[in-house]
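Aim 2 progress. For 3-demethylubiquinone-9 3-methyltransferase, the working sequence is reproduced below.
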Amino acid sequence: MNVQAYLAFNGNCQEALSFYGDIFNAEIKNRQTYEDKKIDVPGNYRKKLQHAELKGKGVNFMAYDASPDTPINNGSQIHMSVDLDTVEEAEKIFTKLSSGGQIHHEFREREWGHFGRCNDQYGISWMVNCDK
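Predicted structure tokens for this construct:
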């Protein structure tokens, strides 16, 4: 069994996956656009991603650009969680993810280790952890 996240974007999925790919040293795989699909989307939306996967060592999630008639509500119901082995690497990842976004909990030492929580520039919620 494999359970993984599937993120929805408002037309900037390619940009977001490139951003995450740079941070996590991962590649965009299985990239499919709306171009050849029999789906009713505007012509200017045909090159948007209908499906893609970001894969790398320890990284695997899917994403797409929701069609314009599918509303996306930025909420706090789900967070992507990243667990790292070193405080330095965790702080570096947190800094990159939170750049241009909103920090909810500064990355700092907690009872269990180091932790920070933020929303990135695309509205995705992230928790970055490094155990003691």
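Strands lie at 6-9, 27-33, 49-56, 59-65, 80-83, 102-109, 113-119, 125-131. This observation will guide construct design in the next reporting period.
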